[in-house]
Amino acid sequence: MTDQGHTPGTQRPQQLVTDVVVLGGGAVGENAAGRVVQGGLEAILVEPSLIGGECSYWACMPSKALLRPGTALHAARSVAGSREAVTGTLDARSVLERRDSFTSHWDDSGQEDWVRDTGIGLVRGRGRLTGPRQVRVEYDDGGSVTISARHAVVLATGSVPAPPPLKGLDDIEYWGTREATSAQKVPPRLIVLGGGVAGTELSQAWARLGSKVTLVARHDVLEKYPEPARELVKAGLAEDGVDIRTHTGTDYVRPGVGGGVELGLDDGSVLTADRLLVATGRTPALANLGLEDLGLDGVRPESVRPETDDSGLVDGTDWLYVVGDAAGKVLLTHQGKYEARAAGTAIAARARGELPPSEAPAPWSRAAATADHAAVPQVVFTDPELAMVGLTLEQARADGINASETSLELSVAGSALHSDNYRGWAQMVVDEDRRVLVGVTFAGPDVSELLHSATIAVTGEVPLDRLWHAVPAYPTISEIWLRLLEKYGL
């Protein structure tokens, strides 16, 4: 069933029945619904906004489109022979137009076509759980429909910004990440509040487009990553003119004299800018979904946060699943899509009687998002890039693993050929009892392309003695694998 072609004034159904209802039409919800349909079931997708969600229109795609031109220009300037051919700076208008093309100009008709062609039903509206396997959807233009699910309801509602309790913030107009990735003009001066991935990436993107950027972080920039890696990223930001204020608290924000904003810091100083971007993290979008009214054992009343197994099934139920950012485990699009595929597979298997209704699926089966525990890949698309999979040394030891680390500067023939004065760093974390990798980090230009080999090594628990025989091609940056293993002692 789909209502995207609904004509105002015509009769809409008040009751619908399907196998699975998915709340949230972003990339994660699309994957969950798609996998359910592949498993032979019916599914209806419920979405109040654009099909494709945050990643397609306000996060992954537009932010990387903003970053890529600056990275390409810097790469050209980093090699003798090509740098002499560079005669200008970034054309902001062209960058923004290219960014707009990657968001399809915020038109989701193509995504709508995909939903229809895949055989997924679509209801545009805001859904809320009203009972087991039952969802009520309110339309924006009035009216509602109740959808009953024979097998499951999946919450794939994503996450929302988590602004800090900053005095005066509610009284000013400021950018969140949505406004920062969809802006049509470059602000002359920009303050970025938050030193996480979004704040760091967007600081560099707007600085390279011509904005004078100040980045304010309560702790360090990218503090969850190994220090040598984040120091390289900070050096790259500084090279682009970003004024980095780490370990800095804020007291207030207020409108500036003559426009803009003023941000008061805890050391008594005041920053002024034309725009303030607040990028201090996100929280699962679970409010107003009816979870608190269902009395579920697997939902913590104080936080309305569901506890789930590796298939996304909420504890104490045999019908409610939560995946992606909404589950609050790993707030990354690719990992959310992975969770959604596992959930869809589990739902179809349970519907066919191949998996008991409330039994957790076997680890590493297609119905379990096992990699969420220890093999999550993530990339910070700054220049230089930071790419990591698995655990840091500190995380591994905190988990009780007898872990060691081997690290070195990323300096091989391939990196020297890649760019003049290439600077990079690499680290591997080893479980000494099992002699396998549990974490790998790379920092440097274009190191994200090394990440999948590391992800395979960590996920597959490849023994180091066997990994030694995975010969890296010469001359490529991947030769760093050989150097790491040699330093380790192989």
Task: Please give a structural write-up.
Residues 376-481 form the Pyridine nucleotide-disulphide oxidoreductase dimerisation domain. This protein has 490 residues and is of the alpha/beta class. It has three domains: 15-56 and 103-160 and 284-372, FAD/NAD(P)-binding domain, CATH 3.50.50.60; 169-280, FAD/NAD(P)-binding domain (3-Layer(bba) Sandwich), CATH 3.50.50; 384-488, Enolase-like, domain 1, CATH 3.30.390.30. It is 29% helix and 24% strand. It contains 14 helices and 23 strands. Strands 1, 2, 3, 4, 5, 6 and 18 form a seven-stranded mixed β-sheet that branches. Strands 19-20-23-22-21 form a five-stranded antiparallel β-sheet, sandwiched between helices. A four-stranded parallel β-sheet has the order 10-9-8-14. A hairpin with a 4-residue loop joins β22 (425-431) and β23 (436-444). The chain is globular.
CATH superfamily of the largest domain: FAD/NAD(P)-binding domain
Roughly how many Å apart are the termini? 59 Å
Query: How many discrete domains?
Result: 3
Share of β-strand residues: 15-25%
Radius of gyration: 24 Å
What kind of sheet is the major sheet? 7 strands, mixed
What is the arithmetic mean of pLDDT?
95
The outline comes out as globular
CATH topological fold name of the largest domain: FAD/NAD(P)-binding domain
Oligomer: single chain
Number of strands: 23
Pfam families: Pyr_redox_2, Pyr_redox_dim
Domain Pyridine nucleotide-disulphide oxidoreductase dimerisation: 376-481
Keywords: FAD, Flavoprotein, NAD, Nucleotide-binding
Cofactor: FAD
